[in-house]
Amino acid sequence: MPDGAADPIEEIAADVVTCRHCPRLVAWREQAAREAPARFRGEKYWARPLPGFGDPRARLLVVGLAPAAHGGNRTGRIFTGDRSGDWLFRALHRAGFANQPTSVARHDGLKLRDAYITAVVRCAPPANRPAPTERDNCIGYLVRELRALDRLRVAVALGSFAWDGFLKAAAAAGAVATKPKPRFGHGARARVGERWLLGTYHPSQQNTFTGKLTEAMLDAVFAQARALVDVEPGGRRSSSR
Whole-model pTM above 0.85? Predict the structure, then answer.
């Protein structure tokens, strides 16, 4: 990424949580809180946009699509309290990027090690399908995060939407991918400026229940991310974890 002053992560987070740029998403995230399913009835929902979270000196970035209506939109932390997060945090823990394999609430003791998690869109969208204009309204936050996280070496995109969103944000931040545009696929790998982009199927129930994504497949992607993170620019293995 080009040199220049980057906004502090805390400042980006503060801007994210007060955002109301997309009327449809504002209405949906608040409706989801009012009409909570029986298992969550009575809980106080976050019902605001979600900032990224994790280690501000992370070398690994995990990029998702958007918060889940009754996951992050409820708990206030992306991938926390939903089935996709169950898969993701187990994989991060096995790869040494998280101190525990579960995440059920914002203050449950989870700590990310050398990793940062974010999303292309910060509000829960109806049917998990943000509109292109909603993506474009939100992408600037990811651009700012890429500039702030100046130690990043590897990004893992959870699904094609996150893959394309990362490429778009990276280009806006000054990092150009190899030509032609890298195509998404599980296990795909592309060079984007000085960083690597890895692809995996999203750990949604649609993919995990059908066997399209297995834990072994997800582990293989994060094992590759670990190997790339731990290689110094000169090709030597890093001793830091």
Answer: yes
